Amino acid sequence: MNHNLLNPETRYEGGRIRPLSGLYSCLIGGAIWVVVVGCRQPAPFALEWGQCLLLLGPLVLVPLGLHLVQDDTGADGLGRLAAVSQAPAALALVGASCLPPGWTAGLLALPWLLVTLLIAAWGVVRARRRRSAKRDLWCNIAFLYLAVGGGWVVFDRLGARPLDFAPVIVLLTGIHFHFAGFVLPLCTGLALRQRADVLTKVTAVMVIAGVPLVAAGITATQLGWGSITESATACFLATAGGACAAIHLRLAWQESLPRKARLLFDLAGTALLFSMIFAGLYGLRFIVPLSWLDIPWMRAWPGTANALGFSLPALLGWALTAHAACSPKVGG
């Protein structure tokens, strides 16, 4: 196993590892998210639950993801500015989510868009550096997709309806680019660092292609160009997600990894496989209609599985793996 695998930004002091601000931001954001959910108490099938799932990204998943990829190439001005500004922008988005759609909510969501654009710019800078270009390609693309999600979040909070999409679709597009667009490529990229075999390489390409293809397929249906594109692209991304699930399930059997990380990878892979099965079935609803498989059901079950079952455990598993890789060995 390559012990420079994840290169988390840590510092050694007296044989101990001191986590930097990104991890603290994740922990504080998690506490805030729990408080928000406790105060709002959304029903699983309600639109409010989708809003809460979206907030998990800015409050917890994005800072955790940034913490995982901060290394010697990322500790520059853009990387540090993104880390510092991410938490205040996420808090402003929490305020925006508590307001009805309109100009006030849109203005409160705007800082998050600016932060995602900053993160995307950081990804471009990282990609241009020869040392990290190949190693971090999928992580950098995840940063670009995150900025797309930031734009759709602003649309949602403004109450805007691009291409006359229904409000729920605008919200779900923002969620799509925070989870399928950010977390899925990021985790696939981290897995590619761990084991660059054929399955992982093919999965990485499919994930990167599948995220925008699904958005294009939904747009084609909305424009009246037929539903076959949406069905095909949804099945394509579901297959890519299923392969990513298989990769994490395989990691759960890799004894060189920390036991807690392996348990988290096991949970993440199982949850992702569950959600991808239903994502594929939902994409095929034009061909094989299932009356019970509607947007509220998808948001309540596969959506929750994606957020709490896959995204959070997978990133935590990679964080534990990175920490173990950098921990000083006794007697070493």
Describe this structure in words.
α6 runs antiparallel to α7, α9 runs antiparallel to α10 and α10 packs antiparallel against α12 (302-326). The chain has helices spanning 21-40, 47-69, 77-97, 103-128, 130-133, 137-158, 167-194, 198-222, 228-251, 259-283, 295-300, 302-326, and strands at 10-13, 16-19. It is globular. It has a two-stranded antiparallel ribbon. β1 (10-13) and β2 (16-19) form a beta hairpin. The chain has twelve helices and two strands. The model is unreliable at 1-20 (pLDDT under 50). 75% of the residues lie in helices and 2% in strands. It has one domain. With 332 residues, the chain is mainly alpha-helical. The protein starts with 9 loop residues before the first strand and ends in a 6-residue tail after the last helix. The longest helix is centred in the middle third of the chain and has 28 residues, at 167-194.
Topology:
Elements (H helix, E strand, L loop, with lengths): L9 E4 L2 E4 L1 H20 L6 H23 L7 H21 L5 H26 L1 H4 L3 H22 L8 H28 L3 H25 L5 H24 L7 H25 L11 H6 L1 H25 L6
Antiparallel strand pairs: 1-2
Helix pairs in contact: 1-2, 1-3, 2-3, 2-7, 2-12, 3-4, 4-6, 6-7, 7-8, 7-9, 7-12, 8-9, 9-10, 10-12
Main sheet strand line-up: 1-2
Number of strands: 2
Category from helices, strands and their pairing: mainly alpha
Categorize the overall geometry: globular
| Cα radius of gyration in angstroms | 19 Å
Low-confidence stretches: 1-20
| Terminus-to-terminus distance | 16 Å
Helix content: over 70%
Order of helices and strands: EEHHHHHHHHHHHH
Largest sheet: 2 strands, antiparallel
